[in-house]
């Protein structure tokens, strides 16, 4: 039924201006806006909408993953732009927050609304 439907995902934010700045300027994602909703235009044609929700409570899990060829270099570049990486108790992460050896190499961070994102080894 939905095999050829260009589905997309959505996430909430309590401040669309902060979300737009973060996704466009900090992460370098193409962002458009229509009818009070942001659209993140991801590589490969994927889309994610970001809609306003004043009482937003972020999920406790990763909502968006960015596959990259070099997690270390990406973490360094994002950290230089002010991104802070998450540290999770019980996870073997290095001093920069990168986890290796338990699945693909990955590091987690949050957007301004507290949504959990990752850079993950492609």
- Low-confidence segments, given as residue ranges, are none
The percent range for helix content is 10-25%
**Mean pLDDT across residues:** 96
Structural class, from helix and strand content?
alpha/beta
Q: What is the number of strand segments? A: 8
Order of strands across the biggest sheet? Answer: 1-4-3-2
How much of the polypeptide forms β-strand, as a percent range? 25-35%
Largest sheet: 4 strands, mixed
Total number of helical segments?
Answer: 2
Overall 3D geometry? globular
First-residue to last-residue Cα separation: 29 Å
Run of helices and strands: EHEEEEHEEE
**Radius of gyration, rounded?**
15 Å
Short description:
The protein is built from two helices and eight strands, in the order E-H-E-E-E-E-H-E-E-E. It has 122 residues and is α/β, with parallel strands linked by helices.
Structure description:
- Helices cover 17% and strands 34% of the residues.
- With 122 residues, the protein is of the alpha/beta class.
- 20% of the residues are buried.
- Strand 3 and strand 4 form a beta hairpin.
- The protein contains two helices and eight strands; from the N terminus they run βαββββαβββ.
């Amino acid at each position: 039924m939905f095999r050829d439907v260009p589905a997309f995902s959505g996430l909430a934010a309590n401040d669309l201006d902060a979300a737009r700045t973060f996704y466009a300027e900090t992460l370098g994602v193409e962002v458009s806006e229509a009818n009070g909703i942001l659209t993140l235009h991801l590589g490969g044609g994927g889309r994610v909408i970001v809609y306003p929700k004043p009482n937003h409570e972020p999920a406790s899990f990763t909502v968006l993953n960015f596959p990259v060829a070099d997690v270390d270099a990406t973490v360094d570049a994002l950290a230089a732009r002010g991104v802070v990486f998450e540290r999770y108790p019980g996870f073997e992460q290095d001093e920069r927050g990168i986890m290796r050896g338990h699945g693909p190499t990955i590091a987690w961070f949050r957007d301004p609304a507290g949504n959990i994102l990752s850079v993950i080894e492609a």
